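Re: the request from the purification team.
They wanted to know what the chain is likely to look like in 3D before they choose a buffer screen. I agreed to run a prediction and write the result into the notebook, where they can find it.
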Amino acid sequence: VDEMARVSHYRAFVDRFPALGLAYRNFRYAVFDLRERRRGTAYGFSLIGEPFIASGKHEPEAVRAFLESDFDMLIDVGANVGFYTCLAATKGKSVIAVEPLPRNVRYLQQNVINNRLANVEVHAVAVADKPGIMKLYGRYQGASLIPHWGKQPTFDFCKVEVTTLDCLLGARVERKKQFLKIDVEGAEHLVLAGAEHLLSRRPVVMMEVAEQDPNQPTGLNPHFNEVMQVMSNHGYFRRQLDPVNWLFTP
């Protein structure tokens, strides 16, 4: 932690120079990426990734709501390193995990392998309102399709394949009781715009979205009311679990 703090001391300087900034970020990305190790969780599976995710202290109200929900299939959009994916799969649920950031995909796949989970599909794509190619800005927990999200410099990006949930899922979920988890760092409105058919199936939805959000370029989410209206139009009741997570039930 101390070493990371010392390296981060120079961030303000190198971010003024995109070439140096990108080289620095790639170096830090590689160095600290190599240090990740398996950590046990309170839920019976191990996890490679940021320690706080495996600690059991991450999103306690959201985890509780997730565990209390009745579903057969988890659609994990913004799966990150796979906490919710592993949590569902270890309880016998089938999982479709969607994650675009290459580092997270690598950890997600390794977590599936380490825990011997046979009921998980991993899709290394982003989800939005239409198929294509988009820029994914930033790294680790804060990678986003939204420019300047979390004050991430726009020179630090990778190009990722993008699809919609309706294209990705097709008719495969017709006979399943679904739970849709959305954690996409500001792109929630895009995900919902490409999920009309899925929402018509009325899955339970848990979504990270906030009206006032310091990660937003302006501090306010310009699509918050739009997201809430979409969910209301589909006949959902909403319950706020914590400052950023909402549970929507039909």
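For the purification team: The two ends are 44 Å apart (CA to CA).
Please add any questions underneath this entry.
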